[in-house]
Amino acid sequence: MKTLGLDLGGTKIAAAVVSDGKILDATRVETPQTGFADVAEAIAGAARSLLERGHEEVAAIGVGSPGPLDYKAGKVLFAPNIAGMENAPIVAELERRLDRVIVLENDANAAGLAEHLYGAARDLESSLYMTISTGIGGGLFIGDRVIRGAHGLAGEIGHMTVLPWGPIGGDGLLGTLEAIAAGRSIARDASYAYGRDLDTREAFERARAGEMKALEIVDNAARFTGIGIANLAKIFDPEGFVIGGGMSQVGPFYLDRIARAAASYLRGYPDADIRIAELGTDAGVIGAAAVAAQSLR
Amino acid sequence: MKTLGLDLGGTKIAAAVVSDGKILDATRVETPQTGFADVAEAIAGAARSLLERGHEEVAAIGVGSPGPLDYKAGKVLFAPNIAGMENAPIVAELERRLDRVIVLENDANAAGLAEHLYGAARDLESSLYMTISTGIGGGLFIGDRVIRGAHGLAGEIGHMTVLPWGPIGGDGLLGTLEAIAAGRSIARDASYAYGRDLDTREAFERARAGEMKALEIVDNAARFTGIGIANLAKIFDPEGFVIGGGMSQVGPFYLDRIARAAASYLRGYPDADIRIAELGTDAGVIGAAAVAAQSLR
Description:
Chain A has 2 domains: 2-106 and 281-295, ATPase, nucleotide binding domain (Nucleotidyltransferase, domain 5, 2-Layer Sandwich), CATH 3.30.420.40; 120-277, ATPase, nucleotide binding domain (Nucleotidyltransferase, domain 5), CATH 3.30.420. In chain A, 38% of the residues lie in helices and 22% in strands. Chain A contains 9 helices and 12 strands. Chain A has a 5-stranded mixed β-sheet. In chain A, strands 10-9-8-11-12 form a 5-stranded mixed β-sheet.
């Protein structure tokens, strides 16, 4: 079934017509930073331009949005990187503009669902998606479904406490996985250790080159990511884990460290099956289109 | 539907005929410590004595067993408190002896399912059961089903790492929730701090009396139990939590501390709905009978 998937990001809105996980047509516009009305119009415009290119029969549109979301009300509660998205009634506004079924989904859930159904975990009954970029998010999947949880929080794995009294995160909590092991955390630690501004990329370059300070930072982030994976294996026990997001592209230098750390916190338990995401930045629109298709069943 | 539930414990085997969560008839025998053949015979004997008391039509029998289990093979891999249960083919042996459908379930999953369907969480669509006794176990429930996970590990929440480089647990891992906050951990810490053998009960009595050392130990256990609940709220996001096991009987003195700790690690998130188990020691047989009933659908 042909549906439309939208991925609302801090800089770009991606849109695609998707059938069974395959992108048939796609477009992309800039994300306005001038308030919700403009964001809604930009999303609707991207969708309309695709619908008008021979896809008028599309009956449902999925929107992957940064969270937190109120699924029942169809609202984005706020979006950290998009101005004016407080309490934004995105479902109602897009329904009005596009006259289609609109389905809202957390962006990490959408990307993870795409990997679960069509990407790295397509052969698995259950999987856990972990996206490691500036922050750390995730999603839980059983069968062909997203486990959203009672308040839409399920899969907010970056906010689990793994080191009480550790560094503070953007959520105001100490020692969360995200505050230790996300890209922004690595940049923070490297900048402190080197006494000047360093980004995540340079921190990894210096670690690869064998510089002790950078290597300690990277090892520490990998260790806690491994602790996170081991904890999730004991709590949710998915058939496999899929790691996506920018830091999944660092390669074996980092991923091998994560796998070793996870194994050392899973001694006596079955090994975690850890895989790298396959769909890249397309995962968001493919997953959003998939939840739209599920809504029509 | 009438089914039979068995709860295999370290000292007692409890058996009951159950219909829709209500115990119709029950019996109890001692757990042999003389090897698997005697355990199987004792379980079968308890079941037979109930079947012969007017319940011959029971078609399925559920067995709640300490783990780890191999669900596919119908085996108990080992049971920490029962001798000779290594790789015990419990399903095959009971099928042979009782000529009924035999369903194996982890004991914490069974007790949690009973609370989910008939006890403290009976009004909830999803719940997470946390049993705090000598150790800490748990179970995850959505709809009327146990989430077992890919390797039967789901809900092994006592083994999540919450304090890297913290005290060692029975699983050989440092800083697991169980190693910090279970009954045996409190007894260990109290015995060390007081320089003589203290059990969990005395530690709580001394904490209630305001003794600083005991209070610090109890506060610390409650804090980490709260961290565990907060982590689980962000990972699985159940509608509610049910706390069972011996330590759920300590009362508000302890449970209020746990709730406060959970709230402080859930700032900015919806409050966790934390409830006390209602079915007491009956939960095991009721839940085992429920999984037996589910197997007949």
